[in-house]
Write a structure and sequence with these properties.
Elements lengths: L7 H5 L2 H22 L4 E9 L1 E2 L2 H7 L2 E3 L5 E8 L1 H4 L2 H7 E5 L8 E11 L6 E6 L3 E7 L1 E14 L8 E3 L3 E2 L4 E7 H4 L2 E10 L7 E11 L9 E2 L5 E6 L1 E14 L12 E5 L2 E6 L1 H4 L5 E7 L6 E8 L7 E2 L5 E8 L2 E7 L15 E6 L3 E7 H4 L10 E2 L10 E8 L6 E3 L3 E6 L1
């Protein structure tokens, strides 16, 4: 079959073809004019991060930035709509950086900010950006340890008249490590926990104090931080009511024969003192117990025991007394030394556990009591008690336990230890 020759002239003489062709050409011309000849538009990209290479400075000079070390800029670009419509593509192509080339020592530097396109054929123009430079402070990092002292500021007095404040109790460590730029940390002379009290106190009070670094010139150091989760220090102010009371002692490990009447005379010097005691406790006492003395620390004759005022519990001494001297005179008593038994008795074995002797770390034991009583004692007639009441719950294995001997009217003098197997 023979195909007829194609005739372009006849095609253009076809009115239907001309209509379709004209329509297509009109659309193409309109698209060309709309896209290529249209007016450029401007687009603003906001909060674009500025890249700063700080690692070079730390590697080469040991310098690190302080203060604000991250920055963002707003960038205006212009171009044809189809070239600037895709924000993600623009952000991937734009290189925003601050130059650290002139940084080589401690100080504040103005780093010039540049914005460029990584696309050599970018069909848009970078018109402007909001930051032409950023100021960054550089210094050498430094750490220093300080003891924290309390600085409680009051409008009048810390405690009400007739009361006294005890030693402050810190809820956290009383030392703190300060980190920051060397030039700032070097100014610091002390770190205080500062709080204020508006009304004099009459009871124990918890305060939230702010950690403050003090400097030799009174300035506030910049860019420093403390090794704490918070700059708030928790301080308790113990508050005691003053009272003059007799100073007394009590005893522990008392043989049963002496529960009602002690076998010695006791004197305390000074016999009384001005104490600080919590008001609630003061209502129920008529003397202040300065110590509980174990019978195992007492031997025949005169015993002199010194109690430091700083070691008292349940209150404090406020009249300046530094120590109390307790004299215990055990008249009619005698001390004898016997060979120690080879076995132990175990009072207060924890529930569900058993105990056995592993080793006794002494060969002899001294006993004190009436002469006629202790002279009749023999090794076989005494019992070594290894009291397990002080062993922490859940403890197993070998534990060191104090050993004592307590008869009806005699006791062991001195300290003795045995190893006990708990299982």
């Amino acid at each position: 079959m023979r195909i007829k020759d194609f005739n372009l002239g006849k095609l253009f003489n076809n009115n239907r073809f001309l209509m379709v062709f004209s329509l297509i050409m009109a659309v193409l011309i309109w698209l060309f004019v709309s896209v290529e000849k249209s007016t450029d538009i401007t687009r603003t990209l906001t909060n674009v991060p500025v890249q700063v290479d700080y690692s070079r400075l730390q590697e080469n000079f040991g310098l690190v930035p302080y203060g604000n070390s991250t920055y963002t800029v707003d960038i205006k670009v212009s171009g044809k709509r189809y070239n600037v419509d895709n924000e993600q593509e623009l952000l991937e192509e734009l290189v925003v950086s601050a130059n650290t080339g002139k940084v080589n020592s401690v100080g504040t530097y103005s780093l010039p900010v540049t914005v460029e396109s990584s696309n050599d054929r970018a069909a848009y123009t970078i018109d402007s950006w909001s930051l032409q430079s950023v100021d960054v402070y550089f210094d050498y990092p430094k750490e220093k340890e300080f003891a924290v002292t309390a600085d409680i500021q009051t409008a009048d007095a810390l405690v009400e008249e007739g009361y006294v404040a005890g030693e402050l109790v810190f809820g956290e460590s009383t030392s703190v490590r300060v980190s920051g730029p060397e030039s700032e940390v070097s100014k610091i002379t002390a770190v205080v926990a500062r709080a204020s009290v508006d009304v004099p106190l009459t009871e124990n009070t918890a305060l939230d104090a702010t950690l403050v670094a003090e400097t030799r010139d009174g300035s506030t150091p910049n860019y420093i931080s403390f090794n704490r989760a918070s700059n708030v220090a928790h301080i308790t102010v113990p508050v005691y009511k003053k009272a003059t009371l007799p100073a007394t002692v009590s005893f522990s490990g008392i043989p049963s024969a002496y529960l009602d009447q002690l076998p010695f005379t006791v004197t305390v010097e000074p016999a009384s003192a001005e104490f600080g005691v919590t008001e609630s406790r003061l209502d129920g006492i008529d003397s202040f117990e300065i110590a509980k003395i174990p019978f195992s620390s007492l031997t025949a004759g005169t015993n002199v025991i010194e109690i430091k005022a700083s070691e008292l519990t349940g209150g404090i001494v406020v009249d300046g007394t530094e120590k109390f001297t307790v004299t215990v005179v055990a008249e009619g008593m005698k001390a004898v030394t016997l060979a120690a038994p080879a076995s132990l008795n175990f009072p207060n074995v924890p529930d569900g556990m058993s105990a056995k002797t592993e080793s006794i770390h002494f060969e002899e034991i001294t006993l004190v009591g009436p002469a006629e009583k202790v002279d009749a004692l023999t090794t076989d007639s005494i019992v070594l008690d290894a009291d397990l009441s002080t062993v922490p719950e859940g403890t197993t294995g070998t534990v060191a336990v104090p050993v004592t001997v307590t008869g009806d009217d005699y006791w062991s003098y001195g300290e003795y230890i045995a190893s006990v197997q708990l299982q």
